[in-house]
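Sequence, please.
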């Protein structure tokens, strides 16, 4: 099984955005050392508690601080931008870090409606045109416009020796079928979807336009030395999600102590229990067993792990324990 990391650059209560970004860079360096396959950075806009609106900038730094791990966006929210602009940025990254750059794209706004308007103007119109935006992006990456096309003489320089690998990210069958139709690799966001993920992944494979469909799944995992410790770590994130759902939690991920003080309503307890169903929480043996069971359910060979805890040290330890549990430096697992 291959293991990768998705980093949303979370800001912890009492810490700064600068500290969150420094923790992201440090974690990427460690992930490279521990043998993780990919390190992807998410994109969010004007969301308190998340520090990464521009993955390409962070990836430029991460690429310079790592040697082997693939780096990428999870995801560039394509309706916010012109495809040519994205092709330029990721061609630049691929020129600097040949054979290591992934370009994940998604259609979500990544922020409020007002933020989307500030970024992209008529965002909904661009969402409707999302399939065409993907086509245009791929054409720019491949530089294969027909001679009579408006952009036939436009090249997103620099042109790398190995192009960025495009991926489509999604949480529903609609995105999976779009990726299949375009013949593009697909990532399913298990950690943020209530849909039937295994069925969606299977539909992607069945409808893939081409050979060798590539797919992996992103899952929320928190690992600690004991189940009790993992449950404590997970509580901070769960409480934060509940607070965000009420328009609160602007100070970032709460401490374990603050999370323990939170008084849940009956409805909030139900919400938290539903969120936990999409998470893997446990000690290294439990986490490995649960991931292997999920692997069998999805019939895939790679998971991308997202871990959010208040303590950046606990987050690093969680990823280290997972790597040790799977011996990701052992070629038999990668």
């Amino acid at each position: 099984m291959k293991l990768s990391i998705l980093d949303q650059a979370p800001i912890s209560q009492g810490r700064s955005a600068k500290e969150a970004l420094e923790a992201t860079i440090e974690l990427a360096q460690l992930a490279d050392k521990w043998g993780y396959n990919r390190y992807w950075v998410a994109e969010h806009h004007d969301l308190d508690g998340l520090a990464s609106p521009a993955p390409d900038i962070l990836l430029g730094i991460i690429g310079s601080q790592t040697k082997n791990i693939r780096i990428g966006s999870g995801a560039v929210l394509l309706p916010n931008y012109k495809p040519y602009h994205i092709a330029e940025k990721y061609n630049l990254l691929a020129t600097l870090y040949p054979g290591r750059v992934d370009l994940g794209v998604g259609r979500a706004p990544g922020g409020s409606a007002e933020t989307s308007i500030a970024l992209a103007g008529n965002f909904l119109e661009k969402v409707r045109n999302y399939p065409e935006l993907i086509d245009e992006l791929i054409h720019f990456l491949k530089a294969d416009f027909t001679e009579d096309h408006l952009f036939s003489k436009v090249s997103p320089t620099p042109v790398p020796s190995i192009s960025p690998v495009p991926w489509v990210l999604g949480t529903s069958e609609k995105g999976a079928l779009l990726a299949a139709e375009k013949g593009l690799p697909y990532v399913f966001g298990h950690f943020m979807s209530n849909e039937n993920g295994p069925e969606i992944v299977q539909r992607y494979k069945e409808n893939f336009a081409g050979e060798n469909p590539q797919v992996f799944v992103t899952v929320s995992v928190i690992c600690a030395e004991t189940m009790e410790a993992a449950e404590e770590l997970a509580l901070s994130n769960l409480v934060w999600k509940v607070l965000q759902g009420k328009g609160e939690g602007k100070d970032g991920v709460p401490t374990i102590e603050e999370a323990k003080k939170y008084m849940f309503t009956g409805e909030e307890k139900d919400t938290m229990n539903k969120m936990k169903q999409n998470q893997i929480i446990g000690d290294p043996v439990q986490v490995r067993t649960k991931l292997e069971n999920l692997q069998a359910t999805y019939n895939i060979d790679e998971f991308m792990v997202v871990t959010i805890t208040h303590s950046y040290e606990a987050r690093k330890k969680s990823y280290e324990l997972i790597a040790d549990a799977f011996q990701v430096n052992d070629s038999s697992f990668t």
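The mean pLDDT is 94.
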